[in-house]
Amino acid sequence: MPEWLIPFIVVDLVVMAVIVYLFVSRRVRFTMDVSGGASGVDFNALMAFTREKHARIGEYVRANWSGAPDQLPHVLETLMAELERDAQSRGLAVDRDLLKSVLASSIRSHRVVKSRDLGEAMKRVA
Q1: Are 31 and 38 in contact (CB under 8 A)?
Q2: Kind and range of the H or E element at 121?
Protein backbone atom coordinates (compact mmCIF):
# COMPACT_ATOMS: atom_id res chain seq x y z
CA MET A 1 0.00 0.00 0.00
CA PRO A 2 1.38 3.45 -0.86
CA GLU A 3 2.38 5.55 2.15
CA TRP A 4 0.47 8.61 0.95
CA LEU A 5 -2.81 6.65 1.19
CA ILE A 6 -2.53 5.99 4.93
CA PRO A 7 -3.45 9.58 6.06
CA PHE A 8 -6.58 9.49 3.88
CA ILE A 9 -7.66 6.19 5.40
CA VAL A 10 -7.08 7.50 8.95
CA VAL A 11 -9.09 10.68 8.27
CA ASP A 12 -11.89 8.62 6.70
CA LEU A 13 -12.03 6.33 9.75
CA VAL A 14 -12.14 9.30 12.15
CA VAL A 15 -14.95 11.00 10.23
CA MET A 16 -16.92 7.75 10.04
CA ALA A 17 -16.46 7.14 13.78
CA VAL A 18 -17.74 10.64 14.60
CA ILE A 19 -20.80 10.20 12.39
CA VAL A 20 -21.60 6.81 13.91
CA TYR A 21 -21.18 8.23 17.42
CA LEU A 22 -23.51 11.17 16.72
CA PHE A 23 -26.11 8.93 15.13
CA VAL A 24 -26.01 6.38 17.95
CA SER A 25 -26.17 9.10 20.60
CA ARG A 26 -29.24 10.47 18.77
CA ARG A 27 -27.73 13.89 18.20
CA VAL A 28 -28.23 13.44 14.48
CA ARG A 29 -31.54 12.08 13.19
CA PHE A 30 -32.46 11.18 9.69
CA THR A 31 -36.01 11.03 8.41
CA MET A 32 -36.34 9.64 4.93
CA ASP A 33 -39.32 9.35 2.66
CA VAL A 34 -39.89 6.57 0.16
CA SER A 35 -38.02 8.37 -2.62
CA GLY A 36 -34.95 8.68 -0.41
CA GLY A 37 -35.08 12.41 0.26
CA ALA A 38 -35.34 14.10 3.63
CA SER A 39 -38.89 14.89 4.72
CA GLY A 40 -40.95 15.75 7.75
CA VAL A 41 -42.82 12.44 7.82
CA ASP A 42 -42.91 10.87 11.27
CA PHE A 43 -42.32 7.24 10.34
CA ASN A 44 -43.18 5.90 13.80
CA ALA A 45 -46.60 7.54 13.55
CA LEU A 46 -46.96 6.37 9.95
CA MET A 47 -46.15 2.77 10.90
CA ALA A 48 -48.66 2.90 13.77
CA PHE A 49 -51.27 4.30 11.38
CA THR A 50 -50.50 1.55 8.84
CA ARG A 51 -50.77 -1.23 11.42
CA GLU A 52 -54.04 0.16 12.73
CA LYS A 53 -55.62 0.57 9.28
CA HIS A 54 -54.48 -2.82 7.95
CA ALA A 55 -57.49 -4.71 9.37
CA ARG A 56 -59.87 -1.94 8.27
CA ILE A 57 -58.56 -2.11 4.70
CA GLY A 58 -59.15 -5.85 4.50
CA GLU A 59 -62.64 -5.59 5.96
CA TYR A 60 -63.57 -2.71 3.67
CA VAL A 61 -62.45 -4.44 0.48
CA ARG A 62 -64.17 -7.71 1.41
CA ALA A 63 -67.41 -5.91 2.28
CA ASN A 64 -67.57 -3.48 -0.65
CA TRP A 65 -66.02 -5.27 -3.60
CA SER A 66 -68.02 -7.87 -5.51
CA GLY A 67 -64.97 -9.40 -7.18
CA ALA A 68 -65.47 -7.65 -10.52
CA PRO A 69 -62.21 -5.97 -11.58
CA ASP A 70 -64.00 -2.98 -13.12
CA GLN A 71 -65.55 -2.08 -9.73
CA LEU A 72 -62.26 -2.19 -7.83
CA PRO A 73 -61.01 1.34 -8.71
CA HIS A 74 -64.16 2.91 -7.24
CA VAL A 75 -63.78 0.88 -4.04
CA LEU A 76 -60.11 1.84 -3.75
CA GLU A 77 -60.83 5.52 -4.43
CA THR A 78 -63.41 5.60 -1.63
CA LEU A 79 -61.01 3.81 0.70
CA MET A 80 -58.20 6.24 -0.22
CA ALA A 81 -60.42 9.18 0.70
CA GLU A 82 -61.11 7.57 4.08
CA LEU A 83 -57.39 6.94 4.68
CA GLU A 84 -56.55 10.54 3.74
CA ARG A 85 -59.16 11.91 6.16
CA ASP A 86 -57.89 9.67 8.98
CA ALA A 87 -54.26 10.62 8.32
CA GLN A 88 -55.11 14.32 8.30
CA SER A 89 -57.12 14.03 11.51
CA ARG A 90 -54.00 12.55 13.17
CA GLY A 91 -51.82 15.33 11.84
CA LEU A 92 -49.85 13.05 9.53
CA ALA A 93 -48.46 14.94 6.55
CA VAL A 94 -48.52 12.07 4.07
CA ASP A 95 -48.78 12.51 0.32
CA ARG A 96 -51.25 10.53 -1.76
CA ASP A 97 -48.60 8.37 -3.45
CA LEU A 98 -47.34 7.12 -0.09
CA LEU A 99 -50.91 6.33 1.01
CA LYS A 100 -51.51 4.47 -2.27
CA SER A 101 -48.42 2.42 -1.55
CA VAL A 102 -49.64 1.63 1.98
CA LEU A 103 -53.05 0.67 0.62
CA ALA A 104 -51.67 -1.59 -2.11
CA SER A 105 -49.28 -3.31 0.29
CA SER A 106 -52.05 -3.97 2.78
CA ILE A 107 -54.39 -5.38 0.12
CA ARG A 108 -51.64 -7.64 -1.21
CA SER A 109 -51.00 -9.06 2.24
CA HIS A 110 -54.73 -9.74 2.71
CA ARG A 111 -54.72 -11.66 -0.58
CA VAL A 112 -58.23 -10.50 -1.47
CA VAL A 113 -57.41 -9.21 -4.94
CA LYS A 114 -55.35 -10.76 -7.71
CA SER A 115 -52.07 -8.90 -8.15
CA ARG A 116 -52.78 -8.06 -11.79
CA ASP A 117 -56.24 -6.66 -10.98
CA LEU A 118 -54.84 -4.63 -8.11
CA GLY A 119 -52.10 -3.16 -10.27
CA GLU A 120 -54.56 -2.11 -12.96
CA ALA A 121 -56.98 -0.64 -10.41
CA MET A 122 -54.23 1.30 -8.63
CA LYS A 123 -53.24 2.89 -11.95
CA ARG A 124 -56.80 4.17 -12.33
CA VAL A 125 -57.00 5.56 -8.79
CA ALA A 126 -56.14 9.27 -8.97
Answers
A1: yes
A2: helix 115-124
Q: Which amino acid does the sequence have at 90?
A: R
Q: In whole numbers, what is the pLDDT of the chain averaged over residues?
A: 83
pTM of structure? 0.65
Q: Which positions ≥6 away from 9 have C-beta within 8 Å?
A: none
Parse the chain into domains and list their residue ranges: 1-30, 40-124
At residue 94 the predicted structure's pLDDT band, cuts being 50, 70 and 90, is confident
Q: What are phi and psi of 31, to 5 degrees?
A: -120, 125
First to last CA, the chain: 58
CA distances from residue 33 to 60, 95, 100 in whole angstroms, order as listed: 27, 10, 14
For residue 68, the tally of other CB atoms under 10 A from its CB is 8
